[in-house]
Design brief:
Helix content is about 0%, strand content about 35%. With about 260 residues, it is mainly β. The strands form five sheets. The chain has a four-stranded antiparallel beta sheet with strand order 3-4-5-6, with no helix packed on it. The chain is globular and about 50 Å long.
Length: about 260
């Protein structure tokens, strides 16, 4: 693990500090969400899903960045039997709840056969929210995952983040035909339930991109697509429109499946 630090003296500016390795071992492609930082010198994150040496995991781990200690949480991700979670995206809403969106795919037995009927094979969308127990639950009851409606359009390898209006949105990715798409959707969780709505598509189709919200603008960077390695985009939430960024990234290299966070 590494963390971007700021030198208070100004001599070094910004620099990356190497942190202790994860106590749970190597994890590939998990979703990370910042949680309460008051209990650690370096902060804490939740790691959702990801892959270990063998297959994908539905485990949720709390990580102390100062020590690398990983603590498995009591509530694992929801996943239908015979399937594996992949392409997780996650974000924390203003009330503390955590939304996780992604896809699941079939798992295989030791002889290479699928564990589910043929008509159920392939990628499926999944969406869920980690929320506190009902008010009448025992005082020691833990937060639990609740399944949400699936997105109307299958997206894998897309980017996702929480918008300024507290909706969780995903951008681009691959559709059910394996084509790279520019379409975008937003998930609303309110007193009326949960629903997905389309938001204006990006100018360029892209998958494996990174995104972050600054103010009321969503910046979508890189990925793979027709012009994804040439042009980055910004979505102005208030106006509901996309613009190409007028600047070019300083490095002549592809940004693909990179993480992103606002400092």
């Amino acid at each position: 693990m590494e963390i971007l630090e700021r030198d208070s003296s100004g001599a070094k500016g910004h620099f990356f500090e190497i942190l202790p390795p994860l106590s749970c071992g190597s994890i590939y492609d998990p979703a990370a969400v910042v949680i309460d930082e008051n209990e650690s010198d370096k902060g804490q994150v939740l790691l959702l899903g990801g892959w270990d040496d063998t297959e994908s995991s539905i485990t949720v781990r709390k990580v102390d960045l100062a020590t690398g200690v990983c603590t498995a949480q009591p509530s694992s991700l929801l996943c239908p039997q015979g399937r594996l979670v992949q392409d997780c995206m996650a974000g924390r809403l203003l009330d503390g709840r955590i939304v996780c969106v992604g896809t699941t795919h079939k798992s295989f037995t030791s002889d290479g056969s699928s564990e589910e009927p043929e008509e159920e094979e392939g990628l499926h969308t999944m969406a869920q929210v980690l929320e506190p127990p009902p008010h009448d639950s025992p005082s020691d009851a833990s937060w639990q995952w609740r399944a949400l409606p699936e997105a109307s359009v299958l997206h894998s390898e897309c980017a996702g983040c929480v918008l300024s209006d507290d909706r969780f949105a995903n951008f681009g990715g691959k559709d059910a035909s394996d084509a790279i798409t520019s379409s975008c959707q937003a998930l609303t969780l309110d007193a009326d339930g949960a629903r997905w709505d389309s938001i204006p598509p990006m100018h360029s189709p892209r998958r494996g991109c990174a995104c972050a919200v600054i103010g009321k603008c969503v910046f979508v960077i890189g990925g793979v697509g027709s012009r994804a390695d040439e042009v980055d985009e910004v979505y102005e939430e208030g106006l509901g429109r996309w613009r190409h960024l007028p600047c070019i990234r300083p490095h002549d290299s592809q940004v693909y499946r990179a993480g992103s966070a606002l400092l």
